[in-house]
Amino acid sequence: MKKVACITTFNQDYYDQMAKTMVETYLEFWPDDVPLYCYTEDMTLPITADNLHEINVFECPGLQEYLDYIGTHFSRGFAYKAFAWIHACKTLDVDEIIYLDADSITYRTITKEWLDQILPNNELLAYMGVTMNKGKHAGHEHADTGVYWFNKTHVYASTFVNRYEQIYLSRQVKTDTQRFPKPNDAYVFADCAVDAKNKGHAVVDFHPERKAHSPIKETILGKYFRHFKGARKKDPKMDKYIEKMKSGAERKDLDKQEKKNKRHGDLKKVENKFRTWK
User: Fold this and answer.
1) What is the pLDDT of residue 138?
2) Are 9 and 80 in contact (CB under 8 A)?
3) What are the phi and psi torsion angles at 15 (to 5°)?
4) What is the pTM of this model?
């Protein structure tokens, strides 16, 4: 049986704002034998569980040097995520690593059987591909890296991780603006994923239709996760919204509407009616 681990990263402020809910819903809905490794900054986790582990994010080689280089640039926060992922890929003794953003939540039970379906043929990775469809970056390959899988046992895995890391160590992520319109992990991951595909390595794209810039609800992941980007996590009604999702109220409504649509021959995904933010 495959050994799977999840990772995330946050500091105290982010934990108080959203990651606390992320961790709590993880412990509620994930299998007990799938550990969550939290790369933390300036804090100690106030809760404990057998499948919950904490790593000081500054144990990640190269992170501090990159932060010194990038300074107060808006992309600074994404660097913690990138270097935590690199560290996990190089140090965790597991077959698959799943990255979960700290502003994501799980709202439905995750089973080992479901996890085994994500990379059914030993693919290298599974991610939500995005193609920018407006603005000056229209047509550029991107990714939503709020939730993604990586197969450490794949023959190309080490090469992929080293290529990803080198983009940061060489500072190409900041200097090569043609490849990386914004110096964040999403553009880097997409660049490496496309390169792997071009070299003949199979990957799973949860979002091949490329209809959305934030596509989680358009994919199979939307039945299990929500990702609260930007101001969404500040909605004062967020707790009630999450409880409604966990109770199944939203899912039942969407399933009912989806069945109705199928009867009328419309197979499009239904928009979330319970979105409480503007």
Assistant:
1) 76
2) yes
3) -65, -45
4) 0.87
